[in-house]
Amino acid sequence: MDNIKAKILDHNSTKKRLLCVTSNYPRWQGDSTPPFIHHLAVDLKEFDWEVDVLAPHFIGAAREEVFEGVSVKRFRYLVPEKAQTICYQGGALMNLQNNRLNYLKLPSLVVFEWLAIVKLLMSGKYDLLHSHWILPQGFNGVIASIPLKVPHVITVHGSDAFALKGKVLSQFKKFSLTHADAVTVNSSATQKQVLSIAPNIKSLNLIPMGVTNVQPNSIRCENLRKKYKIGNGPLLIFVGRLVDVKGVEDLLYALSILKAKLANIRLLILGEGPLRSPLESLAKELNISNNVVFTGWVESKDIINYLTASDIFIGPSKRSADGSVEAQGISFIEAMQAGTPVIASNVGGIVDVIQHEKTGLLVAQENPEQVASSVLRILDDKELESKIIKGAKIKVKSLTSLSTAEKIANVFNDCIKEEQVTNKN
Asked: Where are the beta strands (DSSP E) in 136-234?
């Protein structure tokens, strides 16, 4: 093990090498899987970090590939390949909730992930291990990195902190968080939840996930408006998974209220999830089927065009039955970047970026009436709309993926320095 560590610290290049372990990563070009971890991997190059990614395999995905300069390795955890159904397509938590049989597959995922981590770390070419989500990546990272003396950072995205409750799982999470060299969280809400699980973390850093600086295609935006707008009516938009915590049901009730005053209003719902069918049925019951379009997943690079083409973005998130909340919400930041005014619930990490009447409008959760009145307010008050858009544009300048990468790279560097000091002593 000392030889392994010696190799790790003896680099001729100023570039440092990172092994990133995640359960969610784009499986192929144009995949519906959110690409924010991939964007982080790419951006870390700007700060002298080369990233290799380790992720679960999925049927149809390459076992190994170089994806936009990032080396990606995907480990198999079950055969046949089609049996690997825990990760992707909405995420592990959603897949576990939707199909209890997936719980039987968890031990295999955990064991094969750990084996893959150990094998790669023993190559001696990695300066640091970065785990996304506490379980199972954070736990596997701890029990792999400690004996091999590789610094380890866990990034908590929220769902892992708020969900997976119970005494046993809470102890696993506490163990993982306490034994990591550093932990990063994406919002004040996530930070509070993490501290309730493990108050004695070595280094806790609040670093929001940022968005890439992309520009909309004006022709594409114009075509989208022509395609979806009804006459001169406003075009509303929601982007996200169709799950309970997103509050899309309340958005449909708000749309039914608005339709009485704005017959030509239309809502775009970008996303998939287990609630799609019930939501489509609710739209029929409310007689708003012609006013709402369920687009399904949209390529990540095209989302900016949909947001720019729309008049108002609405994220009516709520606290779900299991206590989960919107930990951050990348789509809110993307809408702000696009210059689309935001209406959002005042829950979870949303309030870190949406300040009432400054960068958006906040409403109470599960309150369709407030959502509807806020839409009308923005449509009727152009001065307020302009103020919100301007404030959001200023705010989003500090929420870029590059700024996130720089802050996380600084955490990595501090961990390496601390490890070197420890070894000298």
From this structure: 152-156, 182-185, 204-206
Q: What does pTM read for this prediction?
A: 0.92
Question: d(Cα 73, Cα 126) in Å, to the nearest integer?
Answer: 15
The SS3 of residue 73 is: strand
94, burial (CB in 10 Å: exposed 0-12, middle 13-18, buried 19+): middle
The residue among 192, 165, 188 whose CA lies nearest residue 328 is 188
CA distance 387 to 47: 35
Residue 95 in this model has a pLDDT that exceeds 90: no
C-beta of residue 153 within 8 angstroms of C-beta of residue 182: yes
The DSSP 8-state label assigned to residue 209 in this structure reads: -
How far apart CA 155 and CA 21 sit, in angstroms, is 10
* Strands of 182-185's sheet in order across: 64-67, 70-75, 49-56, 16-21, 128-132, 152-156, 182-185, 204-206
Decide if 365 contacts 317 (C-beta within 8 A).
yes
Q: What is the pLDDT of residue 421?
A: 65
